[in-house]
Amino acid sequence: MLRKTTLIAAFVGLALGAALAPGALAATTQAPLKEVSWSFEGPFGKFDQAQLQRGYKVYHDVCSTCHSMNLLSYRNLADKGGPFYKEGVNPNESPYAKAIAKDFMVPDIDTDTGEAITRPATPSDHFKAPFANEYAAKAANGGSAPPDLSLMAKAREGGPSYIYSVLTGFTAPPAGLTVAPGKYYNPYFAGDLTSFWNGAANQVPPGGTISMPPPLKPNLVAFDDGTKATVSEEAWDVAAFLAWAAEPHQEERKQTGFAVLIYLFIFAGVLYASYRQIWSKIDH
Amino acid sequence: MSGHSTYKPKTGFTRWLDSRLPIIRLGWDSFVDFPTPKNLNYWWTFGGILALCLGIQIATGVVLAMHYVPSGLAAPGGSLAFNSVEHIMRDVNHGWMIRYIHANGASMFFLAVYIHMFRGIYYGSFKPPREVLWILGCIIYLLMMATAFMGYVLPWGQMSYFGAVVITNLFGALPIVGKSITTWLWGGFAVDNPTLNRFFSLHYLLPFMIAGVVVLHIWALHVPGNNNPRGVEVKSKADTVPFHPYYTVKDGFAMVVFLILFASFVFYMPDALGHPDNYVPANPLVTPAHIVPEWYFLPFYAILRAVPDKLTGVLCMFGAVGVLFVLPWIDRSKTRSMRYRPTARLFFLIFIVDCLLLGLCGSHEPDDKIFANLAGFTFIDSNLNSYTWLSRILGLYYFGFYVILFFLSWTEKPLPVPESISEPVLKGPALPKGATAEAEKKG
Ligand code: HEM
């Protein structure tokens, strides 16, 4: 306890130093994100269900070997607006959600014997995480735990475009850049490469080195709808899926907003007319 | 409260009640028949808008508190607190809407309060006999800042946590008492679970204290009555209209227009005013690259960081708020409205720009260059082309403005002030009606 407290106190001090002392932190850089167009952009944008299904498949086949998505349950996949939504079907009863869930074995307690068991997941279970805990995740990934992806599309500037840029942005490191073993150069991953660079001081490459090996390759997944699985397609689809996962109610939000705004505009008009009428008798 | 009451109970029940608890009379005298200057412009609608904001925050907050779990204990994906907010966003019916209204509502509340305060400074609403009214307003503002700060900690994201670390540490800079205050705020030796618990308790409590002070604020308003754009006292009944229906309809219209802006944020850019890092669960071991407070604190944050010495910086920051309390004794000019004080008005306009630019400085790292292509040179301790120096200059003006107001009160020659609210602007040959209207519009 005491050790933990001192440790935290030390970090508190550090954080404060970083916040208050100008220049305590070196500047991180990042290449400008790629321009990507999304079906859910703009006030009337909607998710493309086929894309969400493809995106889930990429997550399931590729990313889920390293990344958890703890905030989602299998039933969410069949929620209104979700990749496997079907009108009139209760998400908990959805055959898709059931079929997807049952392939995962989750820990449980046998209520008759009290013994620890594993059983096939049901739609109400949370997505099964690939690692038992943070330490296991770190140990398997060269010291950097793969972050949970549930909110990734909201937790970085640029959201889905950021995810797309990182996934498609791996390139060979420029000559003069030392990349440590187990790290990969990525210009879109914010970092500060000054101390790994032996070229001209004003030409430090943008971005950083990431502990994630380039996860995507052409034809890594076989899309059920026959879409050609290029790296860019896979990245685009999984980023769209992650955007949905980060805010499943996004479509509902915009639709509600439209009705609310129409109501408010009409109400404002009525009030303005009343205001003019009531004040017309006053010389002011 | 001012003048005598015109309320006449009409039914048996209201007569019975009126002689026991004249509460309907109070409401009637305060919000129906209250004589209000007839020349109030739209800047005066923000009082009502602020009351609406407080109501919205309390209503949405109470519902959030039904689902929120104030615990920093780790849970898959984050902590109980972080996950409970996401549970609200994902599983609670319309939870996403309630939370977005509450989170953006705080920003809207501050937008309104800043306009309301600038209005007060411009039209001299803080001057006698309204000093107590003004001070009560400053207390509300202070409570709002405390409430919003603690509310922002509740989702227990990275910015929540490190915002709490930075701000609570400021108190540590105070001599002698500093250490005890921070320990007391934290409930331990660092920002941790006990901190989150007490912040939640206080975040629930303070809005109701605000509501209490709002009652006093309105009481203090209804004794001298409203100020008005001309800054002259009400002279006769011809100068006023009853609050209802004249100002209920005007305030109502303004509120709905304000709600349109509010709804645009809630439904179309709900996270635009927030920080992406707050969707990352708090982790004491990973310090974010940039710790920035919410936009409404940025000008004070810039003042804090502009000063090299920590204690002085903290004192300047608190002083920047504190000076508002004594404004009635700084600006002694007999002319209330800056409409008739061209010099003061000029300094006031610069002051607004100054505050906005300070906000800009607060959002940048102190060492960031202002003009990216300009090398600049080091002056004393920092580059002249950096936000550090810009903050210093702007900070000096922030306080300089009050000094200027103090001296202006004695030296400036105000323009002639109209005799009353109903009379044309200038005495002498009557001006065509259009000319008066023109002057009125200039605000
Ligand atoms: C003066 C009025 C208030 C202001 C300015 C205010 C401000 C805030 C802010 C800025 C947040 C963080 C929002 C976010 O980023 O998620 C928050 C969260 C919260 N507030 Fe308030 N609040 C007010 C009143 C209340 C009241 C009266 C209650 C309870 C009765 C309440 C309950 C909560 C809860 C439970 C949260 C955590 C959930 C969340 O983060 O969305 N608030 N508040």
Structural summary, described in words:
The complex is a heterodimer of chains A (284) and B (443). Chain A is mainly alpha-helical and 284 residues long. Among the domains of chain A are: 48-72 and 127-212 and 229-269, Orthogonal Bundle (Cytochrome Bc1 Complex, Chain D, domain 2); 87-125, no CATH class. Helix content of chain A is 37%, strand content 6%. Chain A is built from eight helices and four strands, in the order αααββαααββαα. A two-stranded antiparallel ribbon of chain A has the order 1-2. In chain A, strands 3-4 form a two-stranded antiparallel ribbon. Chain B starts with 11 loop residues before the first helix and ends with a helix. In chain B, a hairpin with a 2-residue loop joins strand 2 (74-75) and strand 3. Chain B is mainly alpha-helical and 443 residues long. A two-stranded antiparallel sheet of chain B has the order 1-4. A two-stranded antiparallel ribbon of chain B has the order 2-3. Chain B is globular, with a radius of gyration of 24 Å. Chain B has two domains: 35-291, Cytochrome Bc1 Complex, Chain C, CATH 1.20.810.10; 298-412, Orthogonal Bundle (Helix Hairpins). Chain B has 16 helices and six strands.
Report a brief summary of the structure.
Chain A has about 280 residues and is mostly helical.
Summary tags:
A: 284 residues; mainly alpha; Cytochrome Bc1 Complex, Chain D, domain 2; two-stranded antiparallel ribbon; 4 strands; globular; disordered N terminus; B: 443 residues; Cytochrome Bc1 Complex, Chain C; Helix Hairpins; disordered C terminus; binds protoporphyrin IX containing FE
CATH topology of the largest domain in chain B: Cytochrome Bc1 Complex, Chain C
Roughly how many Å apart are the termini of chain A?
Answer: 70 Å
Bound molecules: protoporphyrin IX containing FE
Helix content of chain A: 25-40%
User: CATH homologous superfamily of the domain at 48-72 and 127-212 and 229-269 in chain A, by name?
Assistant: Cytochrome c-like domain
In DSSP terms, counting alpha (H) and pi (I) runs of 4 or more, how many helices of chain B? Answer: 16
Question: Segments of chain B where pLDDT lies below 50 for 5+ residues?
Answer: 426-443
- Quote the beta fraction of chain B: under 5%
CATH topology name of the domain at 48-72 and 127-212 and 229-269 in chain A, in short, is Cytochrome Bc1 Complex, Chain D, domain 2
The chain pair forming the largest interface, with residue counts per chain, is: A-B, 57 and 59 residues
Question: What is the global morphology of chain B?
Answer: globular
CATH superfamily of the largest domain in chain B: Cytochrome Bc1 Complex, Chain C
CATH top level assignment of the domain at 48-72 and 127-212 and 229-269 in chain A? Mainly Alpha
CATH architectural group of the largest domain in chain B: Up-down Bundle
